[in-house]
Write a structure and sequence with these properties.
6-stranded mixed sheet; alpha/beta; Nucleotidyltransferase, domain 5
Length: about 170
Amino acid sequence: MSKATEPVARPDDVKRPLVEIYTDGACSGNPGPGGWGAVLRSGSHIKEICGGERAGTTNNRMELMAAIQAFESLTRPSNVRLHTDSVYLRNGITSWLPKWKRNGWRTADNKPVKNSDLWRRLEAAVERHQVTWLWVRGHTGDPGNERADALANRGMREAAAARRLS
């Protein structure tokens, strides 16, 4: 079962390519070394990207980085269907972000928003796209989600290995 937020249609949407994106983040320890992964599909084209942080990151930061890197890799405005198993990412971008901005990047209980640097970067990255945010249950056999998870884990392993070598 997926939950979607439907965007408002714009006149130029017909000219925009449709891009399906699956994202995931992973972390060994929280905080610890972490990785992110994304699968982007448009027509017959598929692009896979991943990366990581050597230490001191969190799973939520990696979930955000997966989405940021996916959007930043798009070369033109697109209609995007982003699939994530992160409630934090989906609720943050669709519900919490406008409230945080109104409150000067403070939460409802007046604490600083965690990861505000990445939330701001994500907001800028999605600005030129028409996005539908879809939540998918993780680890239930969805091929796109499973591949994004594998890429995130690869990014995490590579970051942890680089940490050991430095």
